[in-house]
Specification:
CATH class: Alpha Beta
Order of helices and strands: HEEEHEHHHEHEHEHEH
Strand content: 15-25%
CATH superfamily: Alpha/Beta hydrolase fold, catalytic domain
Shape: globular
CATH topology: Rossmann fold
Oligomer: single chain
Largest sheet: 8 strands, mixed
């Protein structure tokens, strides 16, 4: 009896080694690590065993804008729905969805690229995506990223091989240092720049790169060069330079192009 009581109190004071965050339900939140919840927004009907799992990663956003946004990302997501797709918007670490749900992390750190693009932040997205893929028993994980979300997806695709089956990069700042230079901003090295994270990409993975020809934020040359490097190293890559600017809502026929790769 005394032994059982002692064991009970030991259990109470020991740390909880469960990997699940306390809010995890795989619809509104998913775990990235213990006590680190990543916020989700679903659209369409969500069921296990659908062929495709789409995870959409938003770009860098100001405090006045929250993903997914009714006019931009939300509209695109609805255009990509089909009976074979589970669709999730994912709030990157430190960000809050327009539903009010917040992902683990500090919003202040999202304001500086040095802290926003640290691998520790990107890895949380990878872990959350892995948990969703396993829970919903998806055949294919299609990760769509816009701007900073595209950088995130591209780097995860190299550092966590075989997780992403199709990486769709929209308006990607794929060469981080050159992107900063072209924008007239201070230039410093970033270990998570997609240009530095190519060798680990699985040969089975397919990268689709889409950029607006009038994009003066993440200039088309950055996407073009990344595509050329992937092809030169024997990876599967497609490049679409289309009418439009930086925002996903400005890109003509964006959903039509993406649907041709996911159906």
């Amino acid at each position: 009896m005394i032994k059982n009581i002692i064991l009970f109190f030991i259990f109470l004071i020991l740390p909880n080694f469960s990997l699940a965050c306390d809010k995890e339900d795989f619809l509104k939140y998913v775990s990235a690590e213990k006590n680190r919840c990543i916020a989700l927004q679903t659209i369409g009907e969500i069921n296990k065993n659908k062929k495709n799992l789409i995870i959409f990663l938003h770009g860098d956003l100001s405090s006045g804008t929250k993903p997914p946004g009714k006019k931009g990302y939300w509209k695109l997501g609805n255009e990509l729905l089909s009976k074979n797709v589970n669709f999730f918007f994912l709030a990157r670490p430190g960000y809050t969805l327009d539903s009010g749900r917040k992902s683990y992390g500090s919003y202040k750190e999202t304001r500086k690229a040095k802290t926003n693009y640290k691998w520790e932040k990107l890895e949380l997205v990878a872990k959350a995506a892995q948990n969703l893929k396993e829970y919903y028993n998806a055949d294919n994980l299609i990760m769509i990223g816009h701007s900073g979300g595209a950088l995130t997806s591209a780097t995860i695709n190299s550092r966590v091989p075989k997780l992403i089956d199709k990486s769709i990069l929209i308006s990607c700042p794929c060469d981080f240092e050159k992107w900063r230079k072209m924008r007239g901003e201070s230039v410093y090295k970033m270990k998570t720049s997609p240009y530095k994270n190519i060798s680990g990409i699985s040969k089975d993975s397919h990268t689709i790169i889409i950029v607006g020809k009038n994009d003066i934020n993440t200039f088309p040359i950055l996407s073009k060069k990344y595509h050329e490097i992937l092809i030169s190293k024997g990876f599967k890559s497609e490049l679409h330079i289309i009418e439009g600017e930086h925002s996903s809502s400005s890109l003509v026929d964006l959903s039509k192009i993406i649907k041709s790769y996911i159906n």
